[in-house]
Design goal:
Mean pLDDT: 92
Number of helices: 15
Radius of gyration: 26 Å
Order of helices and strands: HHHHEEEEHHHHHHHHEEEEHHH
Helix content: 40-55%
Number of strands: 8
Low-confidence stretches: none
Structural class: alpha+beta
Strand order of the largest sheet: 4-3-2-1-5-6-7-8
Length: 408
């Protein structure tokens, strides 16, 4: 590689790195934590997750819990309902605000998660998932949303935070290749590009951590960057790109436009009716797991039924669980998601979140992603340190040159 070409790539790497470093530092540290979000959240908030009545043999049916929650507060509709609970745990319901017929706007609930004791049906806690708050109840959801939006608010129908982090990730992909090119300027220097000058410390060790450390984990860094673009800009970038090489099956939410009319109306079919249809369809398809949760997207009028057992609700070792999507008015099957099935493009898109979170490899994968989060943060810091030192050196040289010119 010529010196001129390498110099241009170094400048591009510098400016790309300066643009993304701060965002990746935050994303790396939060990613290291949220790889264990459920476990930490449960440990920090036992009042939200541990049933006050303890593990009993006579919990109320989940559908009855949903009915009571809606009867107790007519302003809300249960949008997500777990159908199988771990013994001794609360039922964590997702709730959405109904439309106030007087104002035409959604009721101000102040929460979108509701924890119920499954034996008594009493509410043990409420919270607004993703609220900007460092309180114990909101800490893990706050970090989770910070990871991919920086808590930048929406506006004019655009989720600016999601878009921004998607752009950051796209620049990160480019920067991965820039960094790899300048890390191996020639075939003779490859050993140097993989080594660490531990005994020399200081600036040289900082440089090696940034350069050689990035080389050692380069493949994982690229994977994180690509999956980040998929998760934040899937519709805008990744799906159109993948569809060039493989057809993609559209989801029911891409085929149906959300509307205020559906949001105002009650679904014609109840959760009980939808579950009966879904169970029969699942048996016909030969699915071994029973329905594990049900959700309702009221703007689209679509129910979703996910099939899993209580010990595999997050599918920590695969591509996810089977899902049936049904019309809330007719019960017709609108779509289906079966992990590992479909075109190779479908499977590629299914793998993005499991890859990004490490859950595709189970617990070892999650450990690896926690370590990679710390590595991303470390590479961001070491890169900034290199830039600051070189900038100071350039300014010192400029001042020295100016001083010498004046006294010559």
């Amino acid at each position: 590689m010529g010196s001129g070409m390498r110099g241009a790539l170094v400048v591009l790497h510098r400016w790309c790195g300066l643009f993304i470093a701060g965002f990746l530092f935050v994303a790396g540290l939060t990613g290291a934590v949220i790889a264990w979000d459920h476990e930490i959240d449960e440990w920090v908030n036992p009042g939200l997750f541990q049933a006050a009545s303890g593990a009993t043999d006579s919990p109320l049916p989940p559908l009855e819990l949903a009915r009571r929650a809606e009867a107790d507060d007519p302003r809300l509709r249960v949008s997500f309902l777990p159908l199988a609970l771990e013994p001794g745990h609360t039922a964590m319901l997702g709730v959405a605000a109904r439309i106030d017929p007087v104002t035409g706007a959604p009721y101000a609930l102040g929460f979108n998660q509701l924890a119920l004791d499954p034996t008594t049906g009493h509410a043990q806690g409420r919270r607004q998932w993703g609220q900007i708050s460092l309180s114990r109840e909101n800490l893990l959801p706050f970090l989770y949303k910070l990871h991919y939006t920086m808590h930048i608010p929406k506006g004019w129908g655009i989720d600016f935070g999601v878009w921004l982090m998607g752009v950051v990730s796209a620049v990160w992909i480019v920067d991965c290749f820039l960094a790899l090119c300048i890390s191996f300027p020639s075939a003779k220097t490859w050993r140097k590009s993989l080594s660490f000058r531990l005994r020399q410390g200081g600036a040289k060790l900082n440089f090696d951590v940034h350069r050689s450390g990035g080389v050692w984990v380069w493949g994982l860094l690229l994977m994180l960057a690509v999956t980040s673009v998929s998760l934040n800009l899937g519709t805008q970038i990744m799906r159109p790109l993948v569809s060039v090489f493989s057809p993609l099956t559209p989801s029911p939410f891409q085929l149906r436009q959300g509307s205020r009319e559906r949001e105002l109306a009650e679904p014609l079919l109840s959760r009980e009716q939808i579950l009966a249809i879904a169970e029969a369809e699942g048996r016909q398809r030969g699915w071994a797991a029973p329905p594990g949760s049900i959700f309702y997207a009221q703007r689209f009028g679509i129910y979703g039924v996910t099939f899993f057992t209580p010990d595999n609700d997050r599918d920590d070792n695969g591509l996810g669980n089977e899902v049936l999507y049904l019309d809330g008015g007719t019960g017709a099957i609108l779509g289906v998601k079966v992990p590992g099935e479909g075109t190779w493009g479908d499977v590629f898109m299914q793998a993005q979140l499991p890859l990004h979170s490490g859950r595709l490899l189970g617990t070892p994968g999650r450990v690896l992603m926690s370590l990679m989060g710390l590595a991303v943060a470390a590479l961001s810091v070491t890169g900034l340190v290199i830039w600051v030192r070189k900038r100071r050196a350039r300014r010192a040289n400029q001042l020295r040159g100016t001083f010498n010119a004046r006294w010559q």
